[in-house]
C-alpha cells in the first residue's frame, strides 16, 4: 500500500486524509494536541465557523455533506443591530442561499471520525512535528509525554499544521522561499449568549448577527444548543481598545454604551471576558507551497487569512478539491500535480486574503451605512432582472466556486460601475427606475 504522512489533524488535515484514503493510501496523521473527541465538547460554549459553498463542495466530493449538515445551522442573512436597538435583516442572496454555522470542535471531531472510518487512516495524538526532511518527504514527531521520537517513512508529506506550521518552517529555510507574516491592529475575544431556559435561541436563530460600530464590531453565530458564540473584533490600542479595557467597570461601561441590546443578553459577560483569551489575527503569505514533488502545504499552513469573509476553512477545504482535481488529471503524477496545485491556488489565496481584509471594513462600518445599503439594494434588483449579467461579489465568493482571484477582479469592475451609478442625481429616489437599470446595463457593455 502507498504511504502518506499528514502533520496536523485540524479541519483541513482530517479532510485531506479522507481524500488520500479514498485514493488507496495508508495515511498516518500526527497531531500535537490530545484527542478532541475525549474532551467534553457539549459543555455549553463552542467556537463556531461559517461553512459555505466551497467547503460544502469539498465535503460532498467525498460523501461527507449529509453527515455535516446534521450539525449545521443555516444563516440566510445578516441581522444588523444598530446602537438604538433597531434591527435590519440583510439577506445574503436573492435566491435564499445560506451560510452555515458549525461548531469548529464538533466539525473537527466528525471529520476525524470519518477519516478513521476509512479503515486506512491512523491518527497519532500528542505527536508534535519537530523535524522535516524535505528531500525524502519524511518528518520527525515528538511524543508529548515521553519525548519519544518517531520518524516517518520517506514518501509524501503534507503540512496541514496551521498558521504556525512546522512543515512550512522547514521550507522557509530553503533558497528562494518567500514568506510574509502580518499581524493586524485588531484582535478578538470570544463571548457568548446563553439559551433561554427551554433551550431556544434568545435572538433570531437563522441569521449571522452583527453589531457594526465603525472601528470595531461584535458578531454572533448560532449553536445547536440554543446559545450563540459571539466574537468581539477590536483594536488592541486606542481609547477603548483591549488594552484600555483593564477593569470590570470599564468593560461593563463599554458594553452598556456600545452594544446595549447585546449587553442585556450577556449577564455572564465578565466571566467570559476573564475566561477567554484575547487572541491576535495574523495573515500569512508564502510561496512555493510544495517541495521536491514530495511535500505540500494545505490550509492555513499556506494561506492564513483574517476571518472576516468566513473563508479560511472554506479555502482550505477548496485546496483539497483542487489538489484532487490535478491528481485526477495527471493520473496521480505527484510532482506535476503539486506544481499545478500551487500555481492555481497561490493567486487565489492572495485574492481571498485581500478580500477578507476588505470585508472587515464592510462588516464593521458599511453594513450600518444607508448609502452602502442602497447600493446593495440596487445591485440585488439588477441581479434579479439580469441574472446572468451581475453577481454581487459576496455571492461570487460565498455561493459559487468561481476562483477567488477572478471574483475579486470582477468585483472591482462592478464596484467601479456602482460608483458611477451612486453618483447619479437623485439616486436615493430613482434607485429602482428603468433609467438606473438601463445605465447599469450600458456600463456593463
Ligand atoms: C476567530 C476566527 C473565526 C473564523 N471563522 C471562520 C469562518 O467563519 N469560516 C471559515 O471558513 N474560516 C474561519 N476561520 C478560519 C479557520 O479557522 C481556519 O482557516 C481553519 O481552521 C484552517 O484549518 P487548518 O486545518 O488549515 O488549520 P488549523 O485548524 O489551525 O489546524 C491545524 C492543526 O495542526 C495541529 N498542529 C499545529 N502544529 C503542529 C505540529 N508542529 N505538529 C503536529 N500538529 C500540529 C494543530 O493542533 C491543529 O489541530 C476563522 C478563524 C478565526 C481565528
UniProtKB/TrEMBL annotation:
Cofactor: FAD
Chemical reaction(s) catalysed: L-kynurenine + NADPH + O2 + H(+) = 3-hydroxy-L-kynurenine + NADP(+) + H2O
EC number: 1.14.13.9
SUPFAM superfamilies membership: FAD/NAD(P)-binding domain
Tree of life domain: Bacteria
Pfam family membership, one: FAD_binding_3
Keywords linked to the UniProt accession: FAD, Flavoprotein, Monooxygenase, NADP, Oxidoreductase, Pyridine nucleotide biosynthesis
Keyword Oxidoreductase: yes
Listed GO MF terms: FAD binding; kynurenine 3-monooxygenase activity
This protein's pathway: Cofactor biosynthesis; NAD(+) biosynthesis; quinolinate from L-kynurenine: step 1/3
Coiled coil (residue ranges): none
FAD-binding domain location: 5-174, 291-354
Physiological role: Catalyzes the hydroxylation of L-kynurenine (L-Kyn) to form 3-hydroxy-L-kynurenine (L-3OHKyn). Required for synthesis of quinolinic acid.
Protein name: Kynurenine 3-monooxygenase
Classification of source organism: Bacteria, Pseudomonadati, Bacteroidota, Flavobacteriia, Flavobacteriales
Amino acid at each position: 500500500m502507498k504511504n502518506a504522512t499528514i502533520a496536523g489533524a485540524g479541519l483541513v488535515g482530517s479532510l485531506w486524509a479522507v481524500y488520500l484514503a479514498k485514493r488507496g493510501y495508508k495515511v498516518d496523521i500526527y497531531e500535537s494536541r490530545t484527542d478532541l473527541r475525549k474532551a467534553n465538547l457539549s459543555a455549553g460554549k463552542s467556537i463556531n465557523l461559517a461553512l459555505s459553498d466551497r467547503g460544502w463542495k469539498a465535503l460532498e466530493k467525498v460523501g461527507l455533506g449529509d453527515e455535516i449538515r446534521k450539525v449545521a445551522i443555516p444563516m440566510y442573512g445578516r441581522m444588523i443591530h444598530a446602537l438604538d436597538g433597531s434591527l435590519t435583516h440583510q439577506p445574503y442572496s436573492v435566491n435564499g442561499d445560506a451560510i452555515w454555522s458549525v461548531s469548529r470542535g464538533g466539525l473537527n471531531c466528525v471529520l476525524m471520525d470519518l477519516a478513521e472510518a476509512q479503515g486506512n487512516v491512523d491518527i497519532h495524538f500528542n505527536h508534535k512535528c519537530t523535524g522535516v526532511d524535505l528531500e525524502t518527504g519524511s518528518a520527525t514527531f515528538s511524543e508529548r509525554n515521553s519525548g519519544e521520537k518517531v520518524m516517518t517513512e520517506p514518501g509524501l508529506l503534507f503540512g496541514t499544521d496551521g498558521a504556525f506550521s512546522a512543515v512550512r518552517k522547514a521550507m522557509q529555510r530553503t533558497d528562494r522561499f518567500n514568506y510574509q507574516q502580518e499581524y493586524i491592529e485588531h484582535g478578538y475575544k470570544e463571548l457568548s449568549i446563553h439559551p433561554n431556559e427551554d433551550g431556544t435561541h434568545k435572538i433570531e436563530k437563522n441569521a449571522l448577527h452583527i453589531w457594526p460600530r465603525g472601528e470595531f464590531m461584535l458578531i454572533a453565530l448560532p449553536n445547536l444548543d440554543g446559545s450563540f458564540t459571539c466574537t468581539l473584533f477590536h483594536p488592541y490600542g486606542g481609547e477603548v481598545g483591549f488594552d484600555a479595557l483593564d477593569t470590570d467597570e470599564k468593560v461593563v461601561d463599554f458594553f452598556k454604551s456600545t452594544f446595549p441590546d447585546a449587553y442585556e443578553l450577556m449577564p455572564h459577560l465578565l466571566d467570559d471576558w476573564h475566561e477567554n483569551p484575547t487572541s491576535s489575527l495574523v495573515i500569512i503569505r508564502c510561496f512555493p507551497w510544495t517541495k521536491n514533488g514530495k511535500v505540500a502545504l494545505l490550509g492555513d499552513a499556506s494561506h492564513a487569512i483574517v476571518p472576516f469573509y468566513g473563508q479560511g476553512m472554506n479555502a482550505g477545504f477548496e485546496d483539497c478539491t483542487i489538489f484532487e482535481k490535478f491528481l485526477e488529471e495527471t493520473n496521480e503524477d505527484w510532482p506535476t500535480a503539486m506544481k499545478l496545485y500551487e500555481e492555481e491556488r497561490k493567486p487565489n489565496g492572495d485574492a481571498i486574503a485581500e478580500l477578507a481584509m476588505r470585508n472587515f471594513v464592510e462588516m464593521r462600518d458599511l453594513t450600518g451605512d444607508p448609502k452602502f445599503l442602497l447600493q446593495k439594494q440596487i445591485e440585488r434588483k439588477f441581479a434579479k432582472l439580469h441574472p446572468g449579467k451581475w453577481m454581487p461579489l459576496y455571492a461570487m465568493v460565498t455561493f459559487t466556486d468561481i476562483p477567488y482571484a477572478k471574483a475579486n477582479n470582477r468585483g472591482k469592475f462592478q464596484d467601479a460601475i456602482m460608483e458611477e451609478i451612486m453618483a447619479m442625481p437623485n439616486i436615493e429616489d430613482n434607485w429602482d427606475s428603468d433609467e438606473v437599470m438601463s445605465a447599469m446595463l450600458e456600463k456593463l457593455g
